[in-house]
Amino acid sequence: MALLEVRGIDAFHGKVQALRGVSLAVGAGEILCVMGRNGAGKTTTMKAIMGLVPVRAGSVTLAGEELVGLKPHEIPKKGIGYVPQGRRLFAELTVAENLEVGLMTRSTGEATRERMLEMFPRLRDRLRQRAGTLSGGEQQMLAMARALCLEPSVLLMDEPTEGLQPSMIALIREAALEMKSRGVAIVLVEQRADAVLQIADRVTFLDNGRTAETVEAAALRADPGLLHRHVGV
Amino acid sequence: MTGLMKPGALHVGVALLLLAANFLLPEYHHGAMARVLTLAVFAMGYNVMFGYAGLLSLGHALFFAAGLYGMGLPMQHLGLAAEPAFLLGIFSGALVAAVVGALALRTAGVAFMIVTLMFAQAGYLTILYFLEYTRGDEGFVIAREARTVFGLDLAAPEVRYLAAWLLFTVAMFVVLALVRSPAGRVLVAIRENEERARMLGYDVARYKLGAIVVSGALCGAAGAAYGLLFGYVGATFASVQYSILPLLWVLLGGAGTVLGPLLGATFMFYLIDLSSGITDAYMLIAGAALVALTLFAPAGLLGELRRRACPWLP
């Protein structure tokens, strides 16, 4: 059974309809990759799930509980973590303070913080450094760690490998696999198939604000032509 | 000394230095610094909202005036004693801030600035309208015999300075505790990236309103204290000039630094004071100094110091 289920949502940017009946689903311990060309509606879908873009039709459920209509700040508390495109850290706060801000809405505090620092050991060496001065890869790790401080059951990541060198991408992939092994459902928005196809279980393609197709990642790995048809690579 | 101890030691040091100044300053500067310390509390209140929560208000004169009149009117017309009147001033500042905040937070950015400005103008006009009670532009004087707190004459220079010092010191440690508390971190997080803070589960509007109320209470305390220490309550303090001044002090001293407002208020006060002794066109000198500071220290004096040498500065 799907943990997070998006069913036929319509969403708008002002008067412009950005999503038309988008559907996707991800289960516990599963990695779903969302792919599509620029402007296909990938980021808007993530924002619609998080309540940042109003959903006018359809439903978003987490473990059967409806999320549409909740205020944006209530959705993370239900158990969805979100790592937005471009990381968007609190640049003036230190690494430790960024984690602290992530932890404050949860009571598990210290244990969660320690687990994050075990998962991303580089951050331990940078605890007193301002987040704005970290490298791109370290910023991505911090963005992920901060979202994971909420102990989410579902983690949405929007283009986490954007602008990163291969060694950093490998670290991000490892972290995603570890979260998967802990039973976290992961939705990865990606443009770069090579960066995530190895770890994804399924791939949902979006095209012009609609769900085009959902396929097993294994099928894509076996038939690159499928990928070419949907994203032109 | 650890990074956590340094800020505490610095602020205790500043408080002690200002206390020592009571015994060392010549008469003129003694009086001037009592005024500066009171106005610095006003600037600190502004800084909570602007420097930490990232809300740029153009209407803080209203909160200062709420404290000033919240204290002054009951003393003048009801014969209330100074102690409860002072508390009433703080409460007035917080209450007015809560009402203005609840309405103004429906807007953001430039609209927020305009709405706060409009509220302050409405407040100013209200003071002028109720001339019978407020005496409008002319204002009213609080009698010296009424300005006693726990038997101490606030009009006496020594007592006045120490009262201003006490107010400043309490306000400084309140702000320091706030910005180093979890709530303070959330305010900075909201200033840095509102959407991300929301995505971590924070009710951004509630935190912002909280910051506005704390800001209003501090500005109200400054207004009430100003009236008590200097014995005058007038509409000038509700004018737009007193909404711009705390913004300038904070920008000069360093937005988002605890001691920046003190530094900015002192710098600006003495810049105008000294330049007015040189020429009638003293605002030209003040303006040139401000432009230079904006060019060479865009984060303000303490903001630049923090950026270049003291990253631990709160």
TrEMBL record, chain A:
GO biological process terms held by the UniProt record: L-amino acid transport
A GO molecular-function annotation: ATP hydrolysis activity
UniProt cross-references to Pfam families, sorted A to Z: ABC_tran (PF00005)
SMART domains: AAA
Annotated keywords: Amino-acid transport, ATP-binding, Nucleotide-binding, Transport
Residue ranges of domain ABC transporter in the record: 4-233
Superkingdom in the source lineage: Bacteria
Segments traversing the membrane: none
PROSITE patterns assigned: ABC_TRANSPORTER_1, ABC_TRANSPORTER_2
Family: Belongs to the ABC transporter superfamily.
Protein name from the UniProt record: Amino acid/amide ABC transporter ATP-binding protein 2, HAAT family
Automatic annotation (TrEMBL), chain B:
Entry's localization field: Cell membrane
A single GO molecular function term of this UniProt record: branched-chain amino acid transmembrane transporter activity
The keyword Transmembrane appears for this protein: yes
One Gene Ontology term, aspect cellular component: plasma membrane
Coiled-coil features, chain-numbered ranges: none
Positions of transmembrane segments: 6-25, 37-65, 85-105, 112-131, 162-188, 209-235, 247-272, 284-303
Pfam family, one: BPD_transp_2
Protein name stated in the entry: Amino acid/amide ABC transporter membrane protein 2, HAAT family
Organism: Albimonas pacifica
Taxonomic lineage of the native organism: Bacteria, Pseudomonadati, Pseudomonadota, Alphaproteobacteria, Rhodobacterales
